Automatic annotation (TrEMBL), chain A:
Residues 83-150 form the Glutaredoxin domain. It comes from Mortierella alpina. This is Monothiol glutaredoxin-5, mitochondrial. Pfam families: Glutaredoxin. The keyword Signal does not apply. InterPro entries: Glutaredoxin, GRX_PICOT-like, Monothiol_GRX-rel, Thioredoxin-like_sf. Keywords: 2Fe-2S, Iron, Iron-sulfur, Metal-binding, Redox-active center. GO terms for molecular function: 2 iron, 2 sulfur cluster binding; disulfide oxidoreductase activity; metal ion binding.
UniProtKB/TrEMBL annotation, chain B:
It comes from the Eukaryota. PANTHER family: BOLA-LIKE PROTEIN 1, PTHR46230. InterPro entries: BolA, BolA-like_sf. GO terms for biological process: iron-sulfur cluster assembly. Belongs to the BolA/IbaG family. This is Bola-like protein. The lineage of its organism: Eukaryota, Fungi, Fungi incertae sedis, Mucoromycota, Mortierellomycotina.
């Protein structure tokens, strides 16, 4: 029996099936908050955390992520500074949200040909479900910078508008700092 | 299970879940599905409720990053995602953040 610690603070405790024990989902209603503290006492006690429990949490699809898909994802995000899991390709996005992310990166001055590793999840059903589980994020596109999940389209857009994205891309050497139009003292 | 979805069962489900979860000051759910109906990913999907924009203002977001706010909502709607919900465009603000924008 394996406890996914990340689910504990969601009020939902998922116990993964093993050959000897079927999967169980325990949902804790809000009026039983005391149970939450009881379960959180279980949290990072390493003796119950197996290798599987160290996978990112997911409430979406607990059964798809194979070791080979996981390795594909991990290799991609550790060997490339900027990885986008998207529908279609940078040249021909197949979804408005994937297109928007490409436009944002382009506007930031990222070299989409050379600095970006993209995966067309429409061409790989296993990767499509696998990345959703890996990131615990139910939608595509998904952007990784320097091995970290940054977000989907909404977050990219809000980071673009706030200036956070430029900071991040410049820090990682993926874009050059724009000279400020009105330099502040 | 009704085959006609004109009454918007997914919309209703999202509204109920988010209302309970966030006790929002305001909650706007906009069905954008028709704009995405031609996508290759939507081939063979007859549901008219796959893509939504959600604008929600709630104190529950206080002290949380955008990522944490989105994860909170995605986690709560996991059943809807399993049942065919495909995309959510989220705008998550606290009442204080909305007031700040209104001032500016």
């Amino acid at each position: 029996m394996t406890v996914r610690p990340e689910n504990l603070h969601r009020g939902s405790l998922r116990l993964i099936s093993t050959p000897s024990a079927p999967a169980l989902d325990i949902h804790i209603p809000p009026n039983m908050n005391f149970l939450r503290s009881a379960t959180s006492a279980l949290r990072p006690s390493s003796h119950i955390l197996t290798r599987r429990a160290a996978l990112p949490a997911t409430a979406f699809a607990v059964r798809h992520l194979s070791d080979s898909t996981k390795k594909t994802i991990e290799d991609a995000i550790t060997q490339n500074k900027l990885v986008v899991f998207m529908k279609g390709t940078p040249d021909a996005p197949m979804c408005g949200f994937s297109r928007a992310v490409m436009q944002i990166l382009d506007a930031q001055g990222v070299d989409l040909q050379n600095s970006l590793k993209s995966f067309n999840i429409l061409a790989d059903e296993e990767l499509r479900s696998g990345i959703k589980e890996y990131s615990s994020w139910p939608t595509i596109p998904q952007v990784y910078v320097n091995g970290e999940f940054v977000g989907g389209c909404d977050i990219m857009l809000s980071m673009h508008q706030s200036g956070e994205l430029e900071k991040l891309l410049v820090k990682e050497g993926l874009a050059e700092a724009e000279p400020e139009e009105n330099p502040r003292a | 299970m009704a085959s006609q979805q004109e009454d918007g069962p997914v919309t209703a489900s999202i509204r109920t879940t988010l209302t309970e979860l966030l006790k929002p000051e305001s909650l706007e759910i906009i069905n954008d599905s028709s704009k995405h109906a031609h996508h290759s990913a939507m081939r063979g999907v007859s549901s008219k409720e796959t893509h939504f924009r959600v604008n929600v203002v709630s104190d529950a977001f206080a002290g949380k990053s955008t990522m944490q706010r989105h994860r909170l909502i995605y986690g709560a709607l996991s059943k809807d995602f399993e049942a065919g919900l495909h995309a959510l465009s989220l705008n998550t603000k606290t009442p204080a953040e909305v007031a700040k924008v209104a001032e500016a």
